[in-house]
Amino acid sequence: ANIITCTRDGTWDSTFKACKLMHGECGQPASSKYVEFKCKGHSISDTCSVTCKDHDVDSVIQTAGTISRHSSIMCTGLKKWIPDPTSFSCVQKCIEKFIEDEMCDPQNNRAYCDWDGGDCCASTLGKEVDKSLCMEECPCLDPDAEENIKESRQNTKKLIRNMNG
Hints:
Keywords: Disulfide bond, Glycoprotein, Repeat. This protein is an alpha+beta fold. It is built from 3 helices and 7 strands.
């Protein structure tokens, strides 16, 4: 099996082995105001750990509406770091122990934290939402929750009616 997979925590599920004939280096990845790279080397197949300078945040890459956690980059045979070091940003960490605890936690009610594990929508929770931790509103933000799918359908019907006059 020559396939390695990036796991949910941003690490590889097995070790990458470079071809013996491959030689070359990637340049030192430039740290930014928020993200820093600590490298074991810069040769093909070497890796760098990726961390955010603030310890209450995760290093992530956001593409096409998804956010994924990444903790390392690798110098490839094309002499490029993958993922691209300039694509990293930092987001507030999820409070893992409060996900799927049957209470809507506003700091976890976002896509990166899987919408608090469904705790903020009655349809995903299976009962009335406990909003005791909410200072203001605790809206159901999960786009796949029945409340939002139903609202989306209603908005589409209104739009079609308005288009048809």
